[in-house]
């Protein structure tokens, strides 16, 4: 078990070790759903919820079921099944209470199941030997960090619609350049908190 404080893990997961901007996990939905701030906030909220819940449940399953039974080789399958179950719950909830957001997110809402940021958080908490509270803090911080990054890029993309971006840089090219700059800014905090 790691001896790092859950608060340090939470802050590091949001800023210094942002799962999107330092590990580059979850880029596909980041690029596709970052055109409008409202859509980015909706998807970010769903990712935060799924990441917190799956981090807690996956840690419990791994620690109390897979390890004692000696079947930790099933870890990937179990982690993906837990993530898929929560994504189904979130999808039904969003469809019921916010049809507009449900249609705005489109195919990317069910694709949270295979969002590598969520699976990456579940795998990283195990390889780093986090305890339960550390895993929950890492899941929450990872989700908030991912949401922060997608909301920032969505705001910048909305502003860029009124900017004079040179033709070769329009579209994904300028988004990747800005993402790289954001990653350098977030990595500038590295060393302050290590997880």
Protein described:
With 195 residues, the protein is mainly alpha-helical. It has one domain (6-187). It contains eight helices and no strands. The chain has helices spanning 6-16, 27-32, 37-69, 75-97, 99-105, 116-127, 132-160, 172-187. The model has no long low-confidence stretch (mean pLDDT 87).
Architecture blueprint of SSEs:
Layout: H1 6-16, H2 27-32, H3 37-69, H4 75-97, H5 99-105, H6 116-127, H7 132-160, H8 172-187
What is the count of DSSP helices, taking H or I runs of 4+ residues? Answer: 8
Gyration radius, rounded:
17 Å
Return residue spans where pLDDT drops below 50 for at least 5 consecutive residues.
none
The number of domains is 1
Task: Kindly state the percentage of residues in helix.
Answer: over 70%
Query: How does the major sheet shape up?
Result: none
How would you concisely characterize the structure shown here?
With 195 residues, this protein is mostly helical. The chain contains eight helices and no strands.
Provide key terms for this protein.
mainly alpha, 195 residues
